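Final paragraph of the annual report: two paired records, presented back to back.
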Amino acid sequence: MVLITGATGFVGNHVARFLASRGERLRLFMRPSSDRTTVAGLDAEVVVGDLRDPTSVAKAARKCDTVYHVAAEYRLWCRNPRQMYETNVEGTRNLLEAALQADVERFVHTSSIGTIAPSADGAPVTEESPSSLEMMTGDYKRSKFLAEREAERYTSRGLGVVIVNPTAPVGEGDFKPTPTGQIIKDFLEGRMPAYINTGLNLVDVRDVARGHWLAAERGRPGERYILGSENLTLRQILALASAGGERRPPRLRLPYFAAWVAGAFSTGWARVAAKPPRVPLDGVRMARRAMFADCSKAREALGFDPAPIQPAVARAVEWFQRSSG
């Protein structure tokens, strides 16, 4: 039996569907408020609960051989940041403890490239790049960094934990959407007249799903693996999103200071309006340095061989256009 958290989310949904295609017996752990339309058609047992509730987490982990912990509060702004730490850190600890008590053989923890601090010179980061809590920007990154430390701590207690660090996944089914998906969506809707000088490593969400399975099958406990594909500037990403469409990528480059002012104003107003900001200040701060990655460790150790990113961007564009239509 395989337990998956976060199966109603973007990455978790693809992980669940990939494992289902391999004939795995699935158990999905989700909140009572989760939208189950995203898991429609999946042959899976559902356990309703909350990561913050150790009793429901223990019930979900019982008699499972493998756990894929994909669930997380993935937001660049939160009116009450404490909620993010409760889910991402305390919830992860609850699940790790439940898995240890249930004698789970392999625990795949979905972390983030965001737990690795970007290099000062823009060089691609690796799993060994120096990072610390003080180097993390914003509550999301800090909470994921602390959750990763919890995962490492349980490795020393005998749980077979493998950590994966996806970069910026793109593709169909980005319902919320993720911050990367929001960039593509904003561009398609004409809300991105300018760009800033930054960059990301993009990866097909389907490859991320397969990478989770490879980590469970071939990963070494206590190790982490960056799941990524291509390093691209923001302007290159927007050019890919514009391919075959009517909208052209912006030519105006916005200075970082102007973006910071926009983020500060937008985030300040969000606190008053109690609505997510159009331009999260943490997102602007993260974009100050390009987040490029070297994914050779996952290629060599896991056999992770991601596809070119252009088809995934095209699928994301088609999906967003269809969803908005």
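The closing record of the year follows.
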Amino acid sequence: MYPLADPFTLVLVSPQIPPNTGNVARLCACTGCKLVLVEPLGFSIDDKQLRRAGLDYWDKVFLRLYPSWEAYVTDTKGARRFLFSALTGQGLWQVRFSPGDHLVFGAETTGLPDRVLASGDGAPVTIPMLDDRRGLNLSTSVGIAAYEALRQNQG
């Protein structure tokens, strides 16, 4: 695998569980993806569990923190966004990702807020799974989506 000139950005909106965010940070360090966190967060950036999950990779992660969804959208005008939801959207296997795309995920317990899904600021996408299931773990979902995007774009 080689790094993309225009890496993907993995966006976590209001994540609540430090180890999940740490795992996503580690994923970013190992793939070259950028990481964006949108407040409010359910933990402090200095959280011990967050640091432990990210191990010693934090210095290799491009991290940006935004105070709100609106601030993130305003600062990233023109970004092509995919809004991941267990409840709605085009199936992951039908999406064609391009370098620089933003893959957006919501909180572990609630997913993306309805206002974000209905905002028109991205295309809803769902990861296929069996019926009558609540959803995958956040860091698992991010890993599946990130590696599918990378697979599509490794020449």
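Residues 138-153 form the longest helix (16 residues). This concludes the annual technical report; the extension proposal builds directly on these records.
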